[in-house]
Design goal:
Elements lengths: L6 E3 L7 E6 L24 E5 L4 E4 L5 E4 L4 E3 L5 E2 L1 H20 L7 E6 L1 H11 L7 E5 L18 E7 L7 H13 L3 E7 L7 H15 L1
Parallel strand pairs: 2-3, 2-8, 8-9, 9-10, 10-11
Antiparallel strand pairs: 1-3, 4-5, 6-7
Helix pairs in contact: 1-2
Length: about 220
């Protein structure tokens, strides 16, 4: 990872910043790559977008049907019960992707991790446990797995933006609120925003993400 399905969008000038965006269960990089054209930044921010692809794997909760999935889900309610080894494996692969960007000259503080739904759960795992300071963490319509919260805080200055739809019936809003409260209890700088939407991304949300990214990437 990145594999052949990964979509990378380069800026007009040599990249100084990077946004790694993880898609949800059963989706792919092509679902979120079009959002890049909606974001506008100053010329001083040369942002590389990377949209990795999750592997195909059989899903226990879907009777073994194969879907693009960062990890297998063993049970859905109330909190996801997952294959923890899968989560560790993809997180290690994505950590290598971050390190690759750093080796190409992008400071870790200029790298932002984003994820939607299952991708958001991976984003939590990846960012909260990364040993160097990151530029930000964006978690959309997702949940925080208990094992992803380190006992010793690695990211003391990490800005975390959590966004959730009030009508989300796939990942219920209570799971977004639960993640927010857990992060606040651990003294993380976490903000929760609600939107009038289901399990999706809205125009007003995209505008808010643009503003948040601009502040993070200055």
């Amino acid at each position: 990872m990145p594999n052949s399905a990964t979509i990378t969008i380069e800026p007009p000038h040599p990249a100084t910043h990077c946004l790694i965006w993880l898609h949800g269960l059963g989706a792919g990089p092509e679902d979120f790559a079009p959002l890049a054209k909606h974001f506008k930044f100053s010329e001083s921010i040369a942002l590389r977008y990377i949209f990795p692809a999750a592997p195909l794997r059989p899903l226990t909760v879907h009777q073994g049907y194969q879907l693009s999935a960062w990890y297998d889900i063993l049970a859905m309610q109330p909190q996801r019960i997952i294959n923890q080894q899968h989560l560790q494996e993809v997180s290690q692969q994505l950590q290598l992707l971050i390190e690759q960007q750093m080796n190409q000259g992008i400071a870790s503080q200029n790298i932002v991790i984003a994820g939607f739904s299952q991708g958001g759960a991976v984003a939590y795992q990846l960012a909260l446990n990364f040993p160097q300071a990151l530029g930000g963490l964006l978690c959309m319509s997702t949940y925080l797995l208990p094992a992803s919260l380190p006992s010793t805080q690695q990211q003391t200055n990490l800005d975390i933006l959590i966004q959730h739809g009030r009508q989300d019936d796939v990942v219920v809003p209570a799971l977004g609120e639960q993640a927010h409260q857990q992060l606040l209890q651990q003294q993380y700088n976490a903000t929760l925003e609600y939107y009038e939407m289901a399990h999706s991304v809205s125009p007003s949300q995209i505008k808010a993400i643009n503003q948040w990214l601009t502040q993070r990437l200055q």
